[in-house]
């Protein structure tokens, strides 16, 4: 059962007056929805009271992409829409209270426009009585703006995060619509949304890039399954951002090119999923589909030239690739450290480096000298435990209290379904006592000793409970470990499982885990 909230009496009175002032035209034709898209109006679907509630309001375009959006939000939100075409803004005013009901909505993604700008003629034989030659426009722009103002005012009363989906492309030769009118209506809508601080999902820009194969036919505003799927992808991304305020920052993604001089030695050549190049073009669609709005790249190996390479290959998309954690394991504690580190720090997206191997060197004075330089530069250090232990991290944290430190992958523990080792728990809790040490909630499936990894939250709850108890809400940071996730599960399911654990703790804690803690720990520079 969904969470409920009673609408304010004043809002009911407002809508009743609006409904009386703006009745539907007597005998007006129903708003057409293609048969192939009508499954999007399916009702009576089960909801999970633990998940946020998302409402989609709109015409047949939104009906067409609703099933794919529901799939994209599966396990993350209850996706609901009315069992009817929401038509034009006049119908919106008449039906809004019914559609909102008494559910407590977290996000509302809404649109009106294609039927407002439509010319209709009662004598027309076309679907929806469309006729731009002999008909009259349904809702002129001044009335459209007035209606939208009232609708947005009502929607804001729900307390939900609102997302306006602007009107999609009107193609040439559409029977009842003039190509280009959607731009004028979208401009009018944008004025309303800017006034009310409502974010805009620019579906018009997206559909403007579509080829003819994405449309149901010449002069048809509707889309093929491929077109609706593409729309759904962008809708899922926008809703995902809203569900997690500023979106998700994934702090553990690897990109690599096997042809690089030093390669990536830790990947076996017989691993078909990982032993191939993983570049931005492979990763960016996955990030977008999962509502990931920021990424911290973690270098995949110890190659020194790859520190700069990671910066270079992500420079084209700095709004997504917010920073790079390099790897200076080969030079920490040597005279070669400072020149290279200083050069890399000239790029503000170089956030720090990872220590993943000792290369035969001890934690001596030169080692701590370089860590001191790191702290003074405002950079951080990731520890991949193996050659380094939790006790080593505690030693560093004790001697370098101003250095920001994070242990990757829950400190390297392996999960086998048995109780966590008591000695390891003690060391994990001991390192958590240092306020400059953070823990990365990453590679959750990768912690499992025997693959395939279970997908039941109960299996992971002991280590998640321990991490949350030891580090608290301010020192846990999310990371996926993509593409290594491909060998143990898939990107969406790892993210979904992590959310399943943290969502009951409330949106404030989720926002810290998925975004705020990362921004603070890594000192991520603002987007350009």
SSE layout:
Elements: H1 9-21, E1 53-57, H2 60-72, E2 78-80, H3 89-100, E3 107-110, E4 119-120, E5 136-137, H4 141-156, E6 161-165, H5 181-196, E7 199-201, H6 203-207, H7 225-243, E8 248-253, H8 280-289, E9 292-298, H9 305-313, E10 321-327, H10 337-344, E11 350-355, H11 365-376, E12 380-383, H12 390-399, E13 404-407, H13 422-432, E14 437-442, H14 457-471, E15 476-479, H15 491-502, H16 507-521
Helix pairs in contact: 1-3, 2-7, 3-4, 4-5, 12-13
Describe the protein's architecture and organization.
It is a single chain. This protein is of the alpha/beta class and 528 residues long. The protein folds into 2 domains: 235 residues, Rossmann fold (3-Layer(aba) Sandwich); 274 residues, Metal-dependent hydrolases (TIM Barrel, Alpha-Beta Barrel), CATH 3.20.20. It is 37% helix and 13% strand. The chain is built from 16 helices and 15 strands. Strands 8-9-10-11-12-13-14-15 form an 8-stranded parallel beta sheet. Strands 2-1-3-6-7 form a 5-stranded parallel beta sheet, with helices on both faces. Strands 4-5 form a two-stranded antiparallel sheet. Helix 12 links the parallel strand 12 and strand 13. Helix 1 runs antiparallel to helix 3 and helix 3 packs parallel to helix 4. The longest helix is centred in the middle third of the chain and has 19 residues. The radius of gyration is 27 Å and the shape is elongated. The N terminus is likely disordered.
């Amino acid at each position: 059962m969904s969470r409920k909230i009673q609408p304010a009496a004043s809002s009911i009175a407002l809508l009743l007056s609006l409904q009386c002032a703006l009745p539907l035209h007597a005998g007006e034709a129903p708003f057409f929805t293609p048969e192939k898209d009508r499954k999007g109006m399916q009702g009576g679907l089960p909801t999970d009271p633990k998940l946020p509630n998302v409402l989609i309001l709109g015409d047949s375009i939104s009906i067409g992409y609703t099933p794919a959006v529901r799939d994209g939000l599966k396990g993350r939100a209850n996706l609901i829409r009315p069992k009817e075409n929401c038509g034009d803004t006049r119908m919106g005013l008449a039906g809004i209270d019914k559609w909102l009901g008494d559910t407590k909505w977290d996000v509302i993604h809404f649109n009106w426009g294609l039927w407002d700008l439509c010319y209709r003629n009662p004598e027309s034989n076309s679907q929806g009585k469309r006729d731009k030659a002999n008909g009259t426009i349904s809702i002129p722009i001044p009335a459209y703006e007035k209606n939208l103002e009232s609708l947005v005012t009502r929607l804001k009363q729900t307390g939900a995060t609102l997302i306006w989906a602007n009107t999609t492309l009107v193609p040439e030769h559409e029977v009842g619509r003039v190509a280009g009118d959607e731009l004028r209506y979208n401009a009018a809508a944008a004025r309303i949304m800017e006034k009310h601080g409502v974010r805009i999902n620019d579906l018009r820009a997206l559909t403007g890039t579509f080829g003819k194969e994405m449309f149901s036919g010449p002069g048809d505003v509707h889309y093929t399954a491929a077109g609706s799927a593409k729309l759904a992808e962008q809708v899922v991304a926008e809703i995902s951002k809203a569900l997690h305020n500023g979106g998700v920052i994934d702090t553990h993604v690897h990109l690599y090119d096997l042809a690089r001089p030093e390669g990536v030695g830790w990947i076996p050549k017989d691993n078909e999923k990982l032993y191939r190049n993983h570049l931005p073009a492979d990763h960016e669609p996955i990030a977008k589909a999962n509502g990931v709005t920021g990424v911290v790249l973690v270098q995949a190996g110890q190659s020194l030239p790859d520190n700069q390479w990671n910066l270079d290959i992500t420079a084209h998309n700095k709004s997504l690739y917010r920073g790079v954690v390099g790897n200076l394991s080969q030079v920490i504690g040597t005279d070669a450290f400072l020149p290279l580190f200083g050069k890399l720090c000239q790029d503000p997206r170089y956030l720090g480096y990872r220590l993943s191997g000792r290369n035969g060197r001890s934690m001596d004075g030169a080692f701590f000298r370089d860590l001191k330089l790191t702290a003074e530069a405002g950079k951080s250090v990731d520890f991949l435990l193996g050659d380094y232990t939790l006790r080593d991290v505690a030693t560093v944290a004790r001697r370098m209290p101003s250095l920001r430190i994070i242990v990757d992958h829950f400190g390297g523990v392996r999960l086998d379904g048995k109780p966590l080792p008591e000695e390891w728990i003690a060391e994990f809790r001991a390192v958590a006592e240092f306020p400059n040490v953070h823990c990365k909630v990453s590679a959750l499936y990768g912690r499992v000793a025997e693959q395939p990894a279970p997908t039941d939250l109960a299996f992971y709850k002991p280590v998640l409970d321990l991490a949350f108890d030891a580090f608290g809400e301010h020192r846990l940071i999310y990371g996926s470990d993509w593409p290594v996730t491909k060998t143990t599960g898939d990107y969406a399911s790892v993210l979904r499982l992590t959310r399943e654990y943290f969502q009951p703790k409330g949106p404030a804690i989720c926002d810290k885990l998925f975004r705020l803690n990362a921004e603070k720990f890594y000192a991520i520079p603002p987007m350009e």
